[in-house]
Specification:
Structural class: mainly beta
Number of domains: 1
CATH architecture: Beta Barrel
Number of strands: 11
Shape: globular
Oligomer: single chain
Strand content: over 45%
Largest sheet: 8 strands, antiparallel, barrel
CATH class: Mainly Beta
CATH topology: Lipocalin
Helix content: 10-25%
Distance between the termini: 43 Å
Length: about 190
């Protein structure tokens, strides 16, 4: 086979080879617990978390692209104090009767090597959508030692002003700045 024929055959084989596709992951709800931190009367930082979260993440490390859709059940708020949780579910805060979910949808992934460093997207809270960037403080993908399936996980953080989303009760005594932390673990579909 001459060089031209060999080059043509190689080019044809490469063109017909399947491209590396993005991988889709489903959140592991037993290891994904978004949480928040807010100043309380200037004395302490109060914390809470949400116990029910679902979602999908798509990663294409070679193309440095991805997408994330995370849905948080607002009624699953957990502070360890039943009376406080009842108040937080009401009209003054999360108003879960009218806004049962908090969502994050993002497709502006920034990578450093094969590690996700940040995800830009839209946070929707109380029916108000605002752009946010979640910064990765930790990220890793590997075969899970127990399930033997590929898994990815990370810790992401951002700070929002809750009044930007219409949550004004108690400001400034209860802080306007809220740190959101979204820790995720997800298994490849």
């Amino acid at each position: 086979m001459n060089r031209i024929a060999l080059a043509a055959a190689l080019a044809g084989a490469l063109a017909s080879a399947p491209a590396l596709a993005a991988e889709t992951y489903t959140l592991d709800s037993t290891h994904t617990f978004p949480s928040f931190e807010v100043s309380h009367l200037g004395y302490s930082i109060q914390r809470g978390r949400f116990n029910k979260t679902t979602g999908k993440i798509t990663l294409d490390a070679a193309a440095k692209k991805g997408s994330a859709e995370i849905t948080i059940d607002a009624a699953s708020i957990d502070t360890g104090l039943a009376k406080l949780e009842e108040h937080l579910r009401g009209d003054d805060f999360f108003n879960v009767a009218f806004f049962p979910t908090i969502t994050f949808k993002g497709d502006k992934f920034a990578f450093e090597g094969d590690k996700v460093k940040s995800v830009g997207g839209t946070l929707t809270l109380l029916g108000v959508s605002k752009p946010v960037t979640l910064t990765a403080t930790h990220f890793n993908c590997a075969d899970h030692p127990m399930t033997k399936k590929k898994a990815c996980g990370g810790d992401f953080t951002t700070t929002i002003k809750r009044t930007d989303f219409g949550m004004k009760y108690g400001v400034p005594a209860v802080g306007d700045d809220v740190t959101l932390r979204i820790q995720v673990e997800a298994f490849k579909d």
